[in-house]
Amino acid sequence: MLKFSRLIGQLVSFILFGLMLGSFSNSPRYTYHDPEMALIMVSFSHSSERKEECRRFSPEELADLAANMRRPMDCKRERVPVYIEVMLDGENLLSKSYNPTGLAKDGSASIYERILVEPGQHQLIVKLRDSGRVEGFDYKSDTVINIEPKELFVIDFRKELGGFYFL
Amino acid sequence: MLLRTLFEHIEDWFDVVFGAKWNPFYQLGALGWFYYWIVVISGFYLYIFFDTGVTQAYQSLEYLTHEQWYAGGIMRSLHRYASDALVVMMIVHLLREFAMDRFRSPRWFAWFTGVPMLWLVFAAGISGYWMVWDQLAQYIAITTAEFLDAVPLFGEAIARNFLTDAKLSGRFFTLMVFVHIALPLFLLFVMWIHIQRHATPKVNPPKELAIATLSMLLILSFIKPALSQAPADLSIVPTTVNLDWFYMPIYPIMNNVSGLTVLIALIVATLLLMMVPWMPPGKRVPVAVVHLDNCNGCSRCAADCPFSAIDMAPRSDGSAYKLEAVVDANHCVSCGICVGSCPTATPFRTKSELSPGIELPEDKIKELREKTVAASSKLTGDDRVIVYGCQNSLDPSKMADAKVGVVTMPCIGMLPPSFIDFVLSKKLAEGVFLTGCRQGDCGYRLGIKWTDARLAGQRDPRIRKRVNQDRIGKYWAGMTRRKEFFKELTAFRLRLNKLDSAQLEDQNKTNNSSEKDNAQV
């Protein structure tokens, strides 16, 4: 009888352990993103203009430089921050500056932003400033998007392609 | 102490159901190893069929799960459930070692090397889920990449790789396969280091327990096979995912707290966890000392030391013996098991001073004899018992009375069997009762095992044959089994009384028959 009870006890222990493994290995479900909403992702990497414009070396300055260091232009490494604005149906969703990467602040700025939006048709305006100007923008894109629930709409940017493009 | 008592109460129940030999709580490390090997073997099978293409990765696993459910599907489920079981074993093992206070002083090593294994196990598991490339994998990929992007080391956001399907290539899966194989291999290396300071480490659970747990995993794999979620589609945001909560409890936090905060919290928590053995540092008890005058280099102490703290080295004192014991102070936990194994640790020595080949400076064998004699001197009656107990379990000194004398030591394995012979042959008591940690869970790993073997005559130093085994009782009580201990002790004393009555009867009979013979003569 004792042996039988022990066997039952062992069986119950293993069943409970198995239940625990079977249950928590894939439940309860976790909601990461509201299924009723869409997502706009602003993501790109971009090198802005230099903080100071390049300057041509004078002949005297060139003569002072070591022969192997002589180059026509003197360019400071630091770049300006990239400033971006995203507007949806006239509402400002994002306006933020991104510093260049690197210790000397000479790398490209990395932008990665998630913006939850209501699905449907929207007027989207994206603007970017990557120069030393104080007002106005260097790039602008104005478009109408139709976005479904759960859909991911990516705002990318590539200077060589003319600016903003959408995925 | 509260956590230890809680563990011991749970384990008491498991002792009743499984018995000490199969109690899973005494096999946590070994079960961890066992699950690891199941994961490796099942993973090897899955690797044969896994395709590293962007869409083929998902398809190859779907094929294994559905078309080849009887082999590949089972292997996949085993792979998942054994991995989950490994996490459970690892966490409970860590908590239990903490509760039992088995991580301070020289035992810091196993703790310290065990903590990085947490990272390796979690990283290996998460990389495995990544390879399935279903919606869960997509969620993991995005969240992990966003988390890593918080580290100001990477120039361009890693998460950008998961913006569109076009940005993803098969190379990525090849990389994941490499990571998913390299991490467990490195884990195995760390596991090996983890047990380096243990002599005879338990890396295999008892066969019966292994079969039972494997059967449970197999049945679970049949009843609830591991399935993929919908295939990954980077144009759609994964909304609701079925997380493996054994591996991903931190992911929802990562979604709501900045990656840098999570990373700093994880690093700080890991460092704190690694430093636990020194917060505060354990009280350093003087380690075992070798007396070369009495050491004959028999190697028994080296063979019995549970922590590989004793090495046999060539003789340094010009003695005719070839070897001598050398104690590594960094490994020695001062349990005294080496003293119990030393053939020179015999209390019968009277001509020369009682100084064995090896002993603990704070618990000298001479003092043990003096304590035994002192305890005996206070006893009265004809059913006197000397209880030898370890200081790691219930405090037996509270049970001392006119009939019971108590002598304690760091571990019951420190008691040389000759002490029992000494007590009985010198009529210091009618019986000797041993107690200590619970069977299968000695605080110093092997104290109970060696004591049982020595008393059974299976391991040196064996108890002499002249000792009446009926006069030796034992009950491995641990912290919690006080009632049972007293029950066993009472039963032992009753047995002693019966034994004495029977002996008295035999003696009377012998005397009567001799008287008759004399009368006849």
Describe the structure.
Chain A is of the alpha+beta class. Chain A has a domain of 100 residues: Immunoglobulin-like (Sandwich), CATH 2.60.40. Chain B has 521 residues and is α/β, with parallel strands linked by helices. In chain B, 52% of the residues lie in helices and 7% in strands. In chain B, strands 7-6-8-9 form a four-stranded parallel sheet, with helices on both faces. A two-stranded antiparallel ribbon of chain B has the order 2-5. The longest helix of chain B has 39 residues. The termini of chain B are far apart.
Output the CATH class name of one domain in chain A. Answer: Mainly Beta
Strand content of chain A: 35-45%
Strand content of chain B: 5-15%
CATH superfamily grouping of the largest domain in chain B:
Cytochrome Bc1 Complex, Chain C
Discrete helix count of chain B: 16
| Structural class designation of chain A | alpha+beta
This entry's quaternary arrangement is heterodimer
The CATH topology of the largest domain in chain B is what? Cytochrome Bc1 Complex, Chain C
Overall geometric form of chain A: elongated
SS elements, strand count of chain A? 11
The total of helices of chain A stands at 2
